[in-house]
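INFO  loader      accepted 1 record
INFO  loader      residues=391
INFO  predictor   begin
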Amino acid sequence: MKILILHNYYKETGGEDTVVSLEKALLRLNGNVVKLFKVNNHQILDKLTQIKTALKIKYSRKHKRLIENEIKNFSPDIIHAHNLFPLLTPSIYDACIESKIPIVQTLHNYRLICPNALLSRNGHTCELCVSGSFYNAVFYRCYRDSIFGSLAVVRMLSHHHKKKTWLNKVDCFIALTNFAKNKFIEGGLPQEKIRVKPNFFIDNKSPLLQEGSRKGVLFLGRLSHEKGIKTLLQAWEALDIPLKIAGDGPLIEMITADNSSNITILGKISPSRVIEEMTKIRFIVMPSECYEGFPMVLVEAFAHGIPVVASNLGGMPEIIENNFTGLLFEAGNPKDLAKKVLWMHTHPEECIRMGENAKNVYKQKYTPEKNYEILMDIYQKTIETYEIKNS
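INFO  predictor   done
INFO  writer      dumping tokens
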């Protein structure tokens, strides 16, 4: 199969970028012909470029023409779009329609139903725009705390919802969890067009957790309010357990000012360093106070046979089975988080059992082989449905 992948890379590399790279490599490994068309937010250099981008965020004729040329030169069987924001824009859908090529869209975040893409405001979940007007986001400055930026995103979303772009111009959506699928349905996306496919990780054959061989806890992610950083630090005030914090973000100063002797700040680390740290720790902690998509750190932890302590929020209970592959705690509750972390720390045999379960779940659900099977089924059924509809 010939697949054209479209992706707008972020300034800071994140989970979405990693998924695009992994899927591209997986498709090629299995004999498909794959081409990646990419743009990068690094080209948004100054205020003038930001203004120009905001004015074209609704529809970029330039990128529509570029995708038309890519289709003409490559002749793909299907197009797989990932992030289109803010440079590619939904204009690329028209390029696909006019070229008579079916298109699949992965929903890595909640951008289509929430202007800041997180369903979160001030570090807590917010669904005002799902059931109400997108203009709530302008009032609360939800996009980068900017009225102008929020207005630009809101105008784009309002325009395409009114035009029923998501309803009529995309052949298939991929949601990462059933929880996310249901949220998108609440937000107006067509239920019959949404398939669920989780993220995956390439196992490096790391050994399972052994009692006494690993110590401490790891947090890996963006250091921001919605990730539960404040809750994490408050919980650790009552704990004498080593914690490593890997990542960067706006709350880095809050963490460095904490001065706790049992907290080690690693900063932003490379993928190889992540694997190294995974071999040292006993479990992962994930105190998010927003609806996560499908964090790569979770599937990576499972691949390493590491259990997870996570907030009981959004799609997390769908991924982490309480007392089987980890423990769930009440989101935003530092006392409950401390209680669950302490229990895991003082029950090493149970920690090992949950790590073994996590490894088995990885083998059943999150291997490259299983993911390829699901992805190809999505492609084939999308093409078949498209051909029937247009015959």
